[in-house]
Every structure is written in structure tokens, then in C-alpha cells.
Amino acid sequence: MSKNQEKIEDLINATQDPVARAILLVLSNIDYALTKNTEATQSVIDTFAEHRKDFDLHRNEFRSHVAEEHSLISGIKAAWWAATTMGAAIIWLAGYIIVSQATQLEKDSGQIRVNTLRLGVIENKVGELERRQQFDEQLRTGGK
């Protein structure tokens, strides 16, 4: 029982007036209700304070998590750019090699054509030389 409640009880016991007693009883009920309301409010305040601490802790953990994810995403972006750049460099290098090989193949094919023509000319000259030698041999031997 609160101090106010004790004082009101003392006043109720001391008075003989029924109207004053009724008012004091109502006042006692109001005091009791206010006391319980204050206790309930304090309980809500305490619970809210605990909830607030938990919420702050969760919010800080969430901020840390978001920072970690941002760091991870930045790393992934950097790796993606590196891989894309390397891929582009490899594609460019492969294209350069293919063009270079095609150019060299074309030069080699042209040289083979030139050498084939030269070989044909030499074979014709050798054949002509052999025919002359045979003809000269026949002339020397008298056609035998």
C-alpha cells in the first residue's frame, strides 16, 4: 500500500460524514488506479528501453552487414572489370594473330606460286637441254 493510500485510509476511518467517506473511497480508487497505471507505464518504459537497445544493436549489426556487402560487391565489380578487360585483350590478341597468320599464309602462297612457275621454266629448260644434247649426240654419231 502506498503512502497516499495509507493517508486516505486514515481519513476514511476518521470521518463520520457519509458523503466525505464516499468521496474518500472514490479518491482511494483513483489513487489505486493511478498507482497501477504508473506501474504499468513504468513497465512499458522499461520494456521499450530494452527493445530500443536491441533495436540499436540490430541496426548497428545491419549497418556492418551492409558495409560488408558493399565491400564484396565492389570486389566483384573490380574482378568483373578485370576479367572483361583480359577477355577483350585476349580477343584482340587472337584477332591479331589470325590476321598476321593469314597475311603470312597469303605471302607464302604467292611465293609458292612464283617458285612453281620458276620450277616449270627450269623443267622446260632442262627438257629442252636434254633434247638438244640428244640431237647433238645423234649428229655426232651420225644418227645411229
Short description:
With 144 residues, the chain is mainly α.
What's the topology here?
Layout: H1 3-14, H2 18-141
Structure description:
The protein is mainly alpha-helical and 144 residues long. Helices cover 94% and strands 0% of the residues. It is built from two helices and no strands. Helix 1 (3-14) runs antiparallel to helix 2 (18-141). The longest helix is centred in the middle third of the chain and has 124 residues, at 18-141. The mean pLDDT is 92.
N-to-C CA distance = 160 Å
Number of helices: 2
Overall strand count: 0
- H/E topology pattern: HH
List key phrases describing it.
144 residues, mainly alpha
